[in-house]
Structures are given as C-alpha cells and as structure tokens.
Specification:
Keywords: Glycosidase, Hydrolase. Helix content is 22%, strand content 25%. By secondary structure, it is an alpha+beta fold. The strands form 9 sheets. The protein has an 8-stranded parallel beta sheet with strand order 29-28-27-26-23-22-21-30. Strands 8, 9, 10, 12, 14, 15 and 17 form a 7-stranded antiparallel beta sheet that branches. A 6-stranded antiparallel beta sheet has the order 31-32-33-38-35-36.
C-alpha cells in the first residue's frame, strides 16, 4: 500500500473501464480486478498533469485498501421490529410466501454460496421459477459518517434505504457485478434496509466498508493483494495529455490502426451460417448504407470443437470463400477467437502435454453450458513457448484464411463464472511466476501479445487490429481496442458507458468501443428471432409487448447516436438481431435517422481519422473527459455524462427513456456552437438543450476547423474525394489532416 496527497482536491481519472457512474475518482474506491465488463488498468492521471502507474499484476485497489465484506462484519443487523438478530428474509414461490427466516447476511454472491446458503426447506434455486426474495430490517453502526456499500447482483434487484429507492437494476443471471452506493449513519441509529430480488440463476449480496478519515478518503492511495516489493512510476507533465504520453512511453505506443476500423461495424451474437453473414452484408450494400466491417462471433466450430479452430462444415462450408466474398464487397471481416479449449481437442492436448494448460477446471469436472456440457479450460500464456503454440495453432487453421481482424474474447479470462475468488485463483495458475493470484490481471496483455507478435512477423506490412474484452497496462501497444463487455440493454447501463469509455480512454488506451443496444436483454425485449436459445443462456418469447418494444427501439436509437461519436462504432448483441433494418423494422423515421447518424460518421471521417492518427503520432486521446481540455474549470472536472470527441466536439448522450431535453454544461473558456442549429452559446453555463428523439445534443467549440468528406459505402471508396472544411468562428484555431 502507498498513499499520496492526503486531503487533496485534485481530480483523478483512468484506472481502466468500470461500470459505476464514476468519472472523477477522488474520494471513490475502485477495485482493479479483471471481470467481464471490467478492465483493470492500474494507471491514474490527475487534472494537474501528473500520473501514477502502479506496477503490480495482482488484484489491486484505488482508495480504501480494506476489502469490502459482508455487512455483518461491521454493522449490526436486526429484524424490522428490532427484536431479532439479522435481516428478515421472505421467500416467495409463484407469488405465495413459502418461507420466512432470519439471515445473518445477504450472501448469495457466488455459486457455492447459493448451493450452501439456499433454504433447505425449498427446492434448489436452479430448479425453481418465479421466485422472489425480500430482505427487510435495519442496520446500524457505532461509527458515524458516510459509509460506502455495494450491491453485488444479477437478475432483478430493487434496493431501498430508509424508504428511498437507491437502485432498481437488472443484469443477466450469469454476469453479476457491483453497484456502489453510500449511506449516512448516525452513531448507533438504525437505518432501514429493504432489498427485493427475483433470481433466475443469478447472484446477490451486499458488502460494506467503514468510513475513512476525510484526508485519507481524499487521497491518491493504491494497494495490492500481493507483491515482492512496492513498484510504481510517477509521471510528471504539464497536462493530462502529457501524463498519458508518459504512460505510453513506459508501456508502449499505440500503433496506427487501419482506417477501416473507424468505419461502422455490424455484428451480432451470432451469424449461425456463412450465408447469414453474407446476406447481412449484402443488405447493407443493396441499401447503400455505409459499412466497413462485419463480424463472425463464436460457435462457428462444431459443437464439441471449441478450441479446435475448425469451422463446422455444415454451416460454414467454405471459410476461405466467405472471406473472399466479404472482400469482394469492399468490406472487412473480424473473427472471434478464444483462449478456451475443450479437453477433447488436439490443441488442448498439445498445450497440456507441454505444461501450458491450466487443467484444474478439467480435473474438477467442470462443464460449460453448450449442448450436453464439455470439459474445458484456458491456456497459460506466461511462457514464450505457450504463446508461440497459441499463435501457430491459429495461423494454421484461421490466420492463413485472410481474416482482417481478431476478436480475442474472454481475455480476463472467465474460466468458470461465479466462482469464489479463492477457487478462481486456483483455476488460473500456477504460472512461471507462481500462484494464480500473482498474475490475476495481465492475461489480456500477454495473450494479445502472442497474437500481435505472430501477426507482425507474418504480415509486417499490414496494420493489425485486435478487439479484447479485457485490458491491462500496456495493452494499447498490441494494436488492441477494448470493448466494455457483456453490458445489458438498460438505460442505466447506457449511462454507465459514458464514464466507462471516457476513463478507459484516459487510461492511455485510446481505442474503445461498446455493444450498441447492450449485449443482453430482459425477456420483455426479446423476440426469439436469432437461432436457438441454448448458447445464449436465455429463454426468448416469440412476441414482445408493443410498449416494451417501443422502449427497446428508443434505447437502441439513443445508444446508436452515442456510438457514432465513440472511437469505434459497433453494433452487437445477442438474441435480437442488430442490423439497422431489423432494429428499426416498421419504424421508417427511426431507420432513416439511424442512417443519418451513420452517414454523418462517414462525412466526418477526415476529422475522425485525423484524431485517430493523433493517438499514435502524438499520444493523443479520442474520447476525452472535459478536464483534459478545460483543466481550470472546476465544474467540468466532475461532469460524468459528457465528453469531448477529439479537440472540437462536445458530446452529450441521451440516456433516459422518453427524455426530449437535457441539461448540458458548456465549459468555460470557449464559446460553443449547437451542431444541429448553429446557435452560438457562451461557455461556463449549464443550458437546457432540446433533444427530440432524432437528435443527440452535440456542440462544436468556437475556433474549430472541421474537415469533412462525402458519404461513402466504405472508408476508401473515394480516396481522391475533395475535403470540405467547416470553420467555427470566434477564436483562433489550428487543424491538421491525416
């Protein structure tokens, strides 16, 4: 543990990608542990222009070094009437009260917790449907002050504290995570707690930490679970851009990505056949809508062949022909590859025979969810021999087919979802460095390194592109973009992506993206129109409620607008088809407006590609917290729901259902033009901006010089097209064109 600047008012950013509406981390706690949706990058940058790279590969923490634990460690829990210890838990099955009991804690955080703590009087949780659990009672503390707490949950959960709703959240059952909240306690005074949970294979727990002294809470404090020594690098610079450049000097420069990567990506979970993918691409070309990249997600292999790198010939009869057909239509294709291998495959056996496979998961008899379930594990990438084997196996069967980009999924890696932490560490070790806990976080860095090293050796003149679900310090040097994992189609999760992507970008990882519309959906949004449900781990219904579908369409519409102004513009998700013509089917106005935003992205390609080039040549950042460009504006430092896209555009996404206006803060020190109306506003004020469904608030800083081009089907369609320059008067400005 090492702390600096106790009592500071400096703002802190970076730390990777998180999902808790946190922008300025001063006074916050951040767990740096890889998880689906969470990318732990132990680099923090201050608005004062300095940065700190915490050089540790184990689970680490920013803020309070004490791990959060169940409420009973620190708090006194009582029944609603105060007469009994613990919280009163009521279990309802099919709407009827089935059991009432006192519980020491809310403790269904991991699968083993569910197995061990679920009431024996009821059927096992996995065998019950239509279940609702309600916990009620009070909590008190002898330590007055603001206490930090976390709801760890999946499925539906609604939390109320002292009669006020704190959150109403949903996540798919197999991917829970933390939701932060704070509670003010007076000494020994009970605070009411009410939690309602509707499990469907999910998890739930509430964790807690006592308050820190104010000076310690407001500090730059880093800690780690394990280390031979405390190692860190302090970066001194004149600006946040300079500190990020220093981080890249230490960990590796971001290479120049191919231009097509900044076009539009169409993806879904998943195209089940070769023809489905080609039909989707063909539909975009037929309609004249821009598209540069199409994606083949997982499960293109035979059911029992995960890790074989073989295509299922019944569904993908000609993989090379697939690649060639995509290229013939002037598009690129990205393929999903994993570090996961079924134990029956020759590739698994090669790794295992040389000691490069983590075999504990197989030895435990753990089977995945596909078909009948198959024994599986992940390779250990922490030796050069293992990395060489990994790339060679991919090259022989996949790389040589001519795919353009590589989607390295599950790079945390999530070997067995919802394992207790102590069990999970055994599944990801040992390595040449020792136990799994020592190398908990850098798997994505090392495994993508195996891929990029091989690609650069075999294709030295090609700009490479890798998409990873996780990231760690230095991952940008491997030509990696990180996406925010398996988010959900909910408005609060759209909101989460704004701070998540901005802080990931300020972590020195400039290429970031997200699943437009959210990866997973509540059943009320599902129409059952994509393949079988078994590999999706959900049950769809044939026809959704019209009111729900209206919300689903608006959510996608707003998310799409946001996506057009993020580093990588990518539509993806499961169950519901994600192509524009499917998402907006029957809604001509929505379809036309989505296409308008799509075409705007391509009109702005000269500006976007120049901003992208700055990430390589100038260590720049595309998605910028307001503090980067307005460090002297104290209000700008804490704005969570806006950002700069390059030096000129201020983006204010819409993230509430049926909202048709929002408050937008225009930073001081500049004048601002409304992109849609041309109206000029003075900075340093919050304004109410109209935002009908077809419009996302977007402003251009006075003095900006915006380079634009024609709408094209793909980014290189018209290489000699004239560039149109728009000058936003009111201040001196400089622009470059790459």
């Amino acid at each position: 543990k090492q702390g600096f600047n106790h009592g500071t008012k400096d703002a802190y950013y970076g730390l990777g990608q998180h999902q808790n509406n946190q922008m300025n981390y001063n006074g916050e706690d951040v767990l740096l542990a890889q998880h689906n949706m969470i990318a732990a990058v132990p680099f923090v940058v201050s608005d004062k222009g300095y940065g700190l790279l915490w050089d540790n590969n184990s689970i680490s923490r920013f803020g309070d070094a004490t791990p959060y634990d169940h409420m009973s460690r620190d708090l006194v829990l009582r029944s609603p009437d105060g007469k009994q210890a613990g919280l009163t838990a009521r279990y309802y099955v099919d709407g009827k009260l089935a059991l009432t009991r006192q519980e020491k804690d809310i403790d269904y955080q991991y699968l083993k917790d569910v197995d061990e703590n679920w009431p024996k009087e009821l059927k096992p949780a996995k065998d019950l449907k239509n279940v609702r659990v309600v916990w009620e009672g009070t909590m008190s503390s002898d330590k007055p002050g603001v206490h930090k707490m976390q709801l760890y949950s999946s499925d539906y959960a609604k939390l109320t504290v002292d009669g006020k709703e704190v959150m109403d959240v949903w996540r798919m059952g197999w991917n829970p995570w933390y939701h932060n909240f704070e509670v003010k306690f007076d000494k020994n005074k009970p605070v009411k707690l009410h939690l309602e949970w509707k499990p469907s294979g999910g998890m739930v727990a509430i964790t807690h930490n006592n308050p820190l002294p104010s000076a310690e809470r407001h500090s730059l404090t880093m800690s780690s679970e394990i280390a031979e020594a405390i190692n860190y690098h302090v970066i001194s610079a004149d600006s946040m851009d300079g500190a990020i450049a220093g981080y890249r000097h230490l960990t590796g420069q971001a290479p120049m990505m191919p231009k097509w990567a900044y076009g539009f990506w169409q993806s879904r979970q998943r195209y089940e056949t070769q023809q489905q993918l080609l039909d989707a691409l063909g539909e975009y070309r037929k309609r004249g809508w821009p598209l540069d990249n199409i994606v083949q997600d997982w499960f293109y292999w035979p059911e029992d062949g995960w890790g074989s790198h073989d295509f299922d010939k019944t569904r993908f009869p000609d993989p090379k022909g697939l690649v060639d057909a995509v290229h013939k239509q002037n598009a690129r294709i990205m393929l999903s590859v994993w570090g996961k291998f079924y134990a029956n495959t020759d590739n698994y056996k090669e790794f295992a025979s040389k000691g490069h496979m983590w075999t504990k998961n197989v030895e435990n008899g753990s089977r995945d969810w596909v078909g009948k379930g198959y024994l599986n594990s992940h390779y250990d990438p922490y030796t050069k021999e293992a990395r060489d084997i990994y790339y060679r196996q991919l090259k022989t069967k996949l790389v040589d087919l001519g795919f353009d980009a590589w989607w390295m999924d599950n790079t945390e890696p999530d070997v067995l979802s919802n394992s207790r932490l102590e069990d999970f560490k055994e599944l990801i070790g040992p390595t040449v460095y020792g136990a799994g806990e020592i190398t908990f976080n850098p798997y994505s860095l090392v495994s993508t390194g195996a891929m990029i090293d091989g690609l650069k050796r075999d294709q030295p003149d090609k700009r490479q592109f890798i998409l990873s679900r996780s990231g760690f310090a230095g991952i940008q040097r491997n030509a990696v973009a990180v996406w925010s994992g398996d988010t959900v189609g909910r408005w609060n999760n759209l909101y989460d992506q704004i701070a998540s992507g901005t802080n990931m970008s300020m972590s020195g990882v400039p290429n970031w993206t997200h699943d437009i519309g959210g990866y997973a959906q509540e059943v009320r949004f599902q129409t059952g129109d994509v393949g079988s449900a078994q590999e999706n781990r959900v049950t769809s219904r044939a026809k959704a409620n019209p009111e729900d579908m209206e919300e689903w369409r608006e959510l996608n519409h707003r998310w799409f607008q946001f996506g057009a102004f993020t580093p990588l513009f990518r539509s993806h998700g499961e169950v519901v088809k994600r192509e524009i013509y499917n998402i907006a089917a029957g809604d001509d106005a929505m379809r036309d407006n989505m296409v308008w935003w799509l075409k705007l992205r391509y009109r702005l390609m000269p500006y976007i590609y120049t901003v992208a080039s700055d990430t390589h040549y100038r260590s720049g950042t595309m998605m910028r917290g307001l503090a980067m460009d307005f460090p002297n504006d104290d209000k700008a430092k804490n704005v969570k729901d806006q950002y700069m896209f390059g030096p000129s555009f201020l983006v204010a996404p819409m993230y509430e259902y049926k909202a048709r206006q929002r408050q937008v803060y225009l930073p001081a020190g500049a004048d601002w033009y409304d992109f849609h109306t041309g109206e000029r506003h003075q900075g340093g004020a919050t304004r109410t901006i109209q935002a009908p469904r077809e419009r996302m608030p977007l402003f251009v800083k006075a003095g900006s010089v915006i380079t634009t081009g024609p709408v094209t089907q793909y980014v290189d369609e018209k290489p000699d097209a004239p560039v149109t320059v728009f000058v936003y008067a009111g201040a001196n400005g400089v622009a470059t064109l790459y």
